[in-house]
Amino acid sequence: MDAQGMDEARRCLARGGHVHLMGVGGVGVAGLAHLLIGRGCRVSGCDLELNRCAQSVAAAGGRILAGHDPSHLVPPPDWLICSAAVPADHPEAAAARAAGIPVSRRGEALAAFSAETPCVAVCGTHGKTTTTAMLVQMFRHAGLDPSFAIGAEVDALGGVAAVGASPWLVVEADESDGTLALYTPEVAVVTNVDLDHLEHFRDLAEFHGVFETLVRRARRVVCYGRDDPAATRIAGGAGHAIGFGLDRPADVRGLRRRPEGIGQTFEVELFGRPIGRVRLPAPGAHNARNALGALAAAVACGLDPATAMAALEGFRAARRRLEIRVQRPDLRVVSDYAHHPAEIRALLDAVREGLAPSGLWMAFQPHRYTRTRALLREFPPAFQGVERLWLAPVYAASEPPLPGGSSKDLLEEFHRQGHRGVRLAADLEDLWVRLLEERRPGDLILLVGAGDIDRLADRAAAEWG
Q1: Distance of alpha carbon 84 from alpha carbon 68, whole angstroms
Q2: Domain that holds residue 65
């Protein structure tokens, strides 16, 4: 990913015409498709699974094709955009290059959007989806209509992306493939920086480097998580920085946080001045920090702080963020996207705080062999206090199996650290059978991971909801 690829993406975006997208079933590529349709491009796309995201693109006017094949390039499009999951030598992408069709990665294309309009880029290892969703809802509450692209489906916003009437573009900027360093936003938000994505980055220094580059490229303001040491080191020294947080002195600070049912309240100080109390219908300290990050960005964009805070009272989260799929007196099923140890800890804290389970049955699907191996020792402590835990096989996300990175390796690490109430399912069907056999009246069932474990949540909602 370099400046040359970014320049080509900007030229293609300016030219418009027919754009073909490989991996249109992914939320990131589907979001791009909606943005391109919104600006008048003719869009086609393909994927191995024509899921809800792909269907939403079809409903918006895109032509959707099953599978991946060079025949999709007849007649030839003006531009091909590929998901990060598509290998560079894939036959369809290779055929495009051979035919002289420009080929861009998803991150390059979205960064090209950010270069041509006032943009807020929300990034960080954890919390960027929720923070982005909060900020877009703040804009709308203020009577503005920003364009946006979010890495999850947000029903309250109508999907993963849209073109709005306001000149502002709010994007969830993904660091996973390094293209974060290509953005040139007016406002950057760095929620936190926790080592991840070792399938792409060689080491911590290289991982931190993309965030450092974004901070330098932000034109107006950088908002950063003051409670996070790495985000503070990377962004706190910028001359145009706004810190937000709960635990340390910050420019946008939350104080006297108090849980209230499946939500919370906290007071806010803006540059040392009390400005009111927030009522947020989402539990957990991490969600309070997300709200403060969104508020910091709203202030940086010129929104009235009181209006932005009021928007949080009606906040509706993205799918798979502590999403209650079954709610009965004798049973609750929650689906969540957490896949990093820090996210699992935050999820369990929020569950205990907001849902007060009497019995907790948890299933976790690790995501990527590289992440599982790199963070193997960090996973077991994150599940502290979970008595019944089943592990599903790793969701590969196009990776080949990696020694030391399987669910069996993770199970052995749990045992080495003294966690005995952990078992391994053969597959998702086996996990469903275990769930049926072992659930008890009053249980709260957590189905957790960034892969396809949500299929079990769909099944539970259909059969038990």
Answers
A1: 14
A2: 3-104
